[in-house]
Design a protein that fits this description.
Elements lengths: L14 H5 L4 H18 L6 E2 L5 E2 L1 E6 L3 E2 L2 E2 L5 E5 L6 E2 L10 H10 L9 E7 L15 E7 L2 E7 L23 E9 L3 H11 L3 E5 L9 H8 L9 E7 L5 E7 L7 H10 L3 E4 L18 E9 L3 E4 L7 E4 L7 E4 L12 E6 L2 H8 L2 E5 L2
Parallel strand pairs: 15-16
Antiparallel strand pairs: 1-2, 3-6, 3-11, 4-5, 6-7, 8-9, 8-12, 9-10, 10-11, 13-14, 14-20, 15-18, 16-17, 16-21, 18-19, 19-20
Helix pairs in contact: 4-5
Length: 373
């Protein structure tokens, strides 16, 4: 746990005493500098940031794989979509550029030294963290939770070894270049953070970097457990939580623990939402689960993705994890952590789902080919 005290005008004495000796303009300059710095790094509302660095309610990044049908790319290009847009657009930035949406969102920590602040808190988790060896003791889940006393963001992604430790600055790992990846960032008011923290207990995430100042701890007992690396308490098999973004948009958070042994897509999400799902996950041949039509609602594997451009690529070059309802009327889209393969039935993790029509159209139109039963 890290704390820091930002300087106060009180340490310089009152403005009145300096005015009398001609230092009033100097004190005013310090005052405005303080307001600027603290407005940027101390008390500013934390939120997802777009490509221009402005706050947005949510954004989604689809990082393109290096190997596409008919071409080989950089492995760093990405499609971008946020709450102010109607469809994907190719970003003018590469994903390793700190001026893109991801870099802008994490600047509070990286550029603003926010990781030293006692007025904000954050949690980095990844089953394959940077600089550390992989361990299968944890949930198959990756993300960032960053917030202050006003609001914060929950960033869910599929990228191993990301993000870097805050003191090392923004960087994109080499392991994140070859395959496609997805990132979902949603801005939430502080009142939603305890619910997200409770979901993370089900996830059993590998927390590799965390700052949770004392002021936040009474509300967030779940994060205290995770940040201290304490033995995980027993939690029931799974939990569904309704979340509301800062601008009032509804999301459903599905969180499954290691005690619920099943494919999250087939056994829970499709049946709970009462829709047939088209699923895109990274499947290894020796462990992949076939499309499933044994339950009332079916789960069908996507095999080829098409994004604007057009950009075409096969599922086996895509490490992202998402699904959409097959029928256009339902308009469900989910992004998250788990793959459709046998070993992941024993893994904890989750999905965040939305009925936003823009998100649905973007992903439903990306389905180029899927395997029926």
């Amino acid at each position: 746990m890290r704390k820091v005290s930002f300087f106060s005008l009180n340490r310089f004495g009152g403005a009145k005493s300096y005015r009398s000796i001609g230092f009033y303009p100097y004190i005013m300059w310090l005052f405005f500098l303080y307001v600027f710095l603290c407005g940027t790094y101390c008390t500013a509302d934390i939120s997802c940031r777009n490509e221009a660095g402005n706050p947005v309610d949510w954004f989604i990044i689809y990082k393109l794989p290096q190997f596409k049908i008919g071409s080989v790319g950089t492995g760093l290009d990405y499609m971008y979509l946020d709450s102010s847009m109607k469809t994907w657009q190719m970003s003018k930035f590469l994903v390793n550029d700190s001026n893109g949406a991801l870099g802008n969102t994490l600047k509070l920590l990286y550029d603003g030294k926010g990781y030293k602040s006692n007025r904000s808190a954050y949690v980095f988790y990844n089953d394959a963290p940077p600089l550390l060896k992989y361990s299968n003791r944890y949930g198959h889940t990756k993300g960032v939770l960053l917030f202050n006393e006003s609001q914060g963001l929950w960033l869910i992604h599929s990228v191993p070894h990301f993000p870097a430790f805050p003191e090392n600055g923004y960087a994109w790992p080499s392991s994140g270049r070859q395959n496609g990846q997805t990132v979902l960032c949603v801005t939430y008011k502080y009142q939603q953070i305890p619910s997200i923290a409770q979901q993370l207990l089900y996830y059993n995430p590998r927390v590799y970097n965390c700052s949770l100042p004392t002021a936040f701890q009474p509300d967030l007992a779940s994060l205290v457990i995770l940040c201290q690396g304490s033995k995980m308490p027993w939690v029931s098999d799974k939990n569904l939580e309704k979340l509301t973004s800062a601008n009032g948009e509804s999301f459903l958070s599905f969180a499954k623990s290691r005690f619920w042994i099943d494919d999250i897509y087939t056994g829970w999400v499709a049946q709970m939402l009462k829709v047939d799902l088209l699923t895109e996950t990274w499947q290894r041949k020796e462990h992949e689960l076939p499309s499933n039509c044994s339950l009332p609602k079916h789960t069908l594997n996507i095999r080829r993705i098409k994004l604007p451009g057009p950009v075409l690529f096969y599922s086996h070059f895509d490490h992202s994890k998402w699904c959409v309802s097959k029928a256009y009327e339902s308009q469900w889209t989910c992004l998250g952590d788990l793959n459709r393969e046998d070993s992941q039935a024993w893994k904890s993790g989750g999905l965040v789902c939305s009925q936003n029509p823009t998100i649905y159209q973007a992903f439903r139109q990306a389905v180029s080919w899927y395997i029926g039963c």
